[in-house]
């Protein structure tokens, strides 16, 4: 064991004893002071390790404010020292964030800082997709669906299935009459972003749950002579917007990048028939369908907003995260 590691281990042992005696504030402040000295001495790896281990100790005593402060300090070192986004650097954040998620007043601050660090390091405008998926799963388990949705949209290849299942759970909680409002949140946004496979995966996860829950209202009508990436074809007698989303997927699958193609004509007819039925979401749906028209059917639409502006501010937490019947169906 190196001298540096033995010093960290000795301090953590002393911290553990102090915490056992209930000296939470003192332990937090002493740890922070030592980490600050290490940073000034350019011993950043040791400072990171100390903050990480100290935060884990404080988690055991539910000192969430201190945990958030130390973790934010650690992430700030990541940013200042341009620490690469690796499995090791992410695991430190994951370990703490999973425990910190018990304290809703603090965890948003931590994961937002971590994502901003990954955006800066990766330079892709979105950040680490695995981190987004991890955060999305945590938020979904806390029923913070609107926030989780944002992360699943830019997550990994596992995220579309997770989003489809979450959107079904969200629809059930709100007792909506047309479940299509919810599956559209995922499918139309994925299509507008150009990720057709994700749209299909999201759809299949959602429709499978709906068909199982409402077998009389959602009936399979698959034509054995027709194959599709969306899987079985259904007719939803009580959910007209579910039917629209399915028809949209089938039309996009057969899309030809030509405004005069048959598929483009069918797409235009679907828009005319269903777009206005999204109520308060009609304007958002209109803009998303414009993007889909351009990507899959070659229809050029002049607009000022980018696709990420249309989908929504991806990293801005909503003002009302709780799910209620009055706000749950708003798509932006």
What does this structure look like?
With 332 residues, the chain is mostly helical. It is 66% helix and 2% strand. A two-stranded antiparallel ribbon has the order 1-2. Helix 10 packs parallel to helix 12 and helix 11 (196-213) runs antiparallel to helix 12 (240-253). It is elongated and about 70 Å long.
Short description:
This protein is mainly alpha-helical. The chain has helices at residues 3-20, 24-40, 44-59, 64-80, 87-100, 104-122, 129-141, 145-153, 159-174, 180-192, 196-213, 240-253, 262-274, 282-297, 307-311, and strands spanning 218-220, 234-236. Helix 1 (3-20) runs parallel beside helix 3 (44-59).
Q: What oligomeric assembly is this protein in?
A: single chain
Measured as a percent range, the helix fraction is: 55-70%
Compute the gyration radius: what is it?
A: 24 Å
- Strand residue percentage: under 5%
The computed structural class is mainly alpha
Per DSSP, the total helix count is 15
N-C termini distance: 53 Å
Uncertain stretches? 312-327
Shape: elongated
Mean pLDDT: 89
Descriptors for this entry?
332 residues; mainly alpha; two-stranded antiparallel ribbon; 15 helices; 2 strands
Chain-wise SSE layout:
Blueprint (H helix, E strand, L loop, with lengths): L2 H18 L3 H17 L3 H16 L4 H17 L6 H14 L3 H19 L6 H13 L3 H9 L5 H16 L5 H13 L3 H18 L4 E3 L13 E3 L3 H14 L8 H13 L7 H16 L9 H5 L21
Antiparallel strand pairs: 1-2
Helix pairs in contact: 1-2, 1-3, 2-3, 3-4, 3-5, 4-5, 4-6, 7-8, 8-9, 9-10, 9-11, 10-11, 10-12, 10-14, 11-12, 12-13, 13-14
């Amino acid at each position: 064991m190196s001298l540096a590691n033995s010093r960290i281990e000795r301090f953590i042992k002393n911290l553990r004893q102090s915490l056992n005696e209930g000296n939470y504030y003192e332990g937090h402040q002493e740890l922070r002071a030592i980490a600050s000295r290490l940073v000034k001495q350019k011993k950043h790896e040791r400072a990171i390790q100390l903050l990480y281990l100290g935060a884990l100790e404080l988690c055991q005593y539910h000192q969430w404010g201190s945990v958030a402060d130390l973790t934010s300090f650690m992430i700030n070192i990541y940013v200042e020292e341009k620490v690469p986004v690796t499995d090791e650097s992410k695991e430190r954040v994951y370990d703490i964030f999973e425990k910190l998620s018990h304290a809703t007043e603090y965890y948003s601050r931590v994961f937002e800082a971590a994502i901003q660090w990954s955006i800066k390091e990766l330079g892709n405008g979105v950040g680490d997709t695995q981190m987004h998926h991890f955060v999305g799963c945590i938020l979904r388990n806390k029923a913070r669906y609107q926030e989780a949705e944002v992360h699943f949209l830019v997550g990994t290849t596992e995220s579309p299935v997770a989003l489809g299942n979450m959107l079904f759970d969200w629809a059930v909680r709100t007792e909506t009459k047309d479940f299509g409002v919810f599956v559209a949140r995922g499918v139309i946004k994925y299509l507008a972003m150009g990720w057709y496979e994700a749209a299909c995966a999201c759809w299949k996860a959602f429709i499978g749950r709906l068909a199982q829950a409402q077998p009389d209202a959602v009936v399979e009508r698959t034509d054995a002579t027709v194959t599709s990436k969306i899987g079985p074809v259904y007719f939803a007698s009580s959910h007209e917007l579910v039917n629209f989303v399915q028809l949209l997927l089938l039309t996009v699958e057969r899309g030809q990048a030509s405004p005069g193609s048959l598929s483009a004509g069918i797409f235009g007819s679907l828009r005319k028939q269903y777009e206005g039925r999204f109520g308060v979401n009609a304007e958002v749906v209109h803009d998303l369908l414009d993007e889909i028209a351009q990507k899959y059917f070659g229809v050029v639409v002049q607009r000022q907003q980018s696709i990420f502006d249309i989908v929504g501010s991806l990293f801005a937490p909503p003002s009302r995260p709780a799910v209620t019947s009055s706000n749950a169906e708003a798509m932006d």
